[in-house]
């Protein structure tokens, strides 16, 4: 993108900073989620989160099944590593930046 004016470059810099801040917030939330999953695993190592899969040492209260509100459910999507998830977020950020670049060129 060729910015011939200083205000245009400044606006692009502000946009980039906002995108970086958003990406940083997403990574921070991801770290918090990973910590929550690790904490849950430490509390209930024999439970995968699937319905009825808790071990005897980590049985839910009577009348409840494993996998309800007290136990983290399995996610709808799973990733082979946290690096794969980071790569996905990086690619989504690149796509968003390219869409923004296209919109700026149209203007």
Quick rundown:
Pfam families: DUF4693. It comes from Indicator maculatus. With 107 residues, the protein is mainly α.
Task: Summarize the structure in words.
This is TEDC2 protein. Helix 1 runs antiparallel to helix 2. The protein is mainly α. Helix content is 59%, strand content 0%. The chain folds into 2 domains: 46 residues; 29 residues. The radius of gyration is 21 Å and the shape is elongated.
Can you lay out the helices and strands and say which pair or pack?
Elements: H1 6-43, H2 82-106
Give structural attributes:
single chain; 107 residues; mainly alpha; 2 domains; 59% helix; elongated; DUF4693; TEDC2 protein
Tell me the structural class: mainly alpha
Low-confidence stretches: 67-71
Number of domains: 2
How would you spell out the order of helices and strands? HH
The outline comes out as elongated
- Helices, by number, come to 2
How far apart the termini lie comes to 12 Å
Please provide the count of β strands. 0
Average residue-wise pLDDT: 75
Task: Round the Cα radius of gyration to an integer and report it.
Answer: 21 Å
Largest sheet: none
InterPro entries: DUF4693
Organism: Indicator maculatus
Protein name: TEDC2 protein
């Amino acid at each position: 993108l060729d910015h011939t004016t200083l205000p245009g470059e400044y606006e692009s810099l502000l946009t980039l900073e906002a995108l970086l801040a958003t990406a940083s917030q997403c990574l921070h939330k991801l770290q918090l989620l990973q910590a929550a999953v690790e904490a849950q695993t430490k509390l209930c190592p024999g439970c995968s989160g699937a319905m009825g899969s808790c071990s005897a040492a980590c049985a839910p209260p009577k009348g409840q099944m494993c996998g309800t509100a007290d136990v983290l459910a399995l996610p709808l999507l799973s990733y082979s590593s946290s690096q794969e998830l980071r790569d996905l977020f990086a690619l989504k950020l690149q796509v968003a930046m390219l869409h923004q670049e296209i919109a700026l060129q149209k203007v």
